[in-house]
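User: Second chain of the day. Same drill as before.
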Amino acid sequence: MAIYFMDGKFTNKDEIKISIEDRGYYFGDGVYEVVKVYSGKFFTEEEHINRLFESAKKIKMTMPYTKEQISSIIKELIVQNKLIEGHVYLQVTRGSATRQHHFPTPSVQPVVTAYTVEATRPILDMEKGVSVKSVEDVRWLRCDIKSLNLLGSVLAKEEAKDAGYAEALLHRDGIVTEGSSTNMFGVKDGVVYTHPVSNLILEGITRQVVLTLCGQLGIPVKEQAFMLAEAYEMDEFFYTSTTAEVMPITKIDDQLIGSGKRGRYTEKLQQAFTAQIPRLGSGING
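Assistant: Same format as last time:
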């Protein structure tokens, strides 16, 4: 039976009780993180935990545990669930209080929940590539916060899914921002382009890893906005996330990107990424 964590206790799912007055339920008033696990080991744990605390700070919520305690909770979940490959989902809401829009006065205890998910790497998609659908980005203007307010992203992802696409490529007034749950990258003439860090995108942890790898591989990077029309003309395109790693995009809407296959820079970054993770055995085929 899977073991979950809630408010200081490791327990099974059936024993977890969430109050109907939890502000996460009412308002999406909380933050979350997804930490990848390979071979029973964390990947970029420190970066994820730091971002969790930054998100909490941005919504003026005091974390009920230290970074070290959060790390211990995640480690214990991995051990108790014998997780080899997958991820840990961790969520913190402001707590349970009578429904009112302003913060509870006096403040209440935040609610922390966490659990593990078994998931293998999407190797086939990473080799063949996927298609994405352009969708107008109508989300709120604090996309830099990894909050529970995800309805805008959910609707964009559903629009893409209904049309048979793997992901939504979001754009504001024609300017590409990010995906519904990913960061977007284009490659043109050997240069990697991606939207600069701002309130309009989430600074993805895998995004950070890829930009570091670009530096190590000598691949030029320009963190600058580009138009959807320019995205169609890229030689290569890919997106990144904790669960998708480095995912080639072979088609945007009805437009093939480059040759319609995984590009060589994308493949180089996949191979370099694979070399970073604590895993024995399989990798990306060249």
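Helices lie at 23-27, 45-58, 67-80, 123-128, 151-162, 205-217, 228-232, 264-276.

User: Great, on to the next one.
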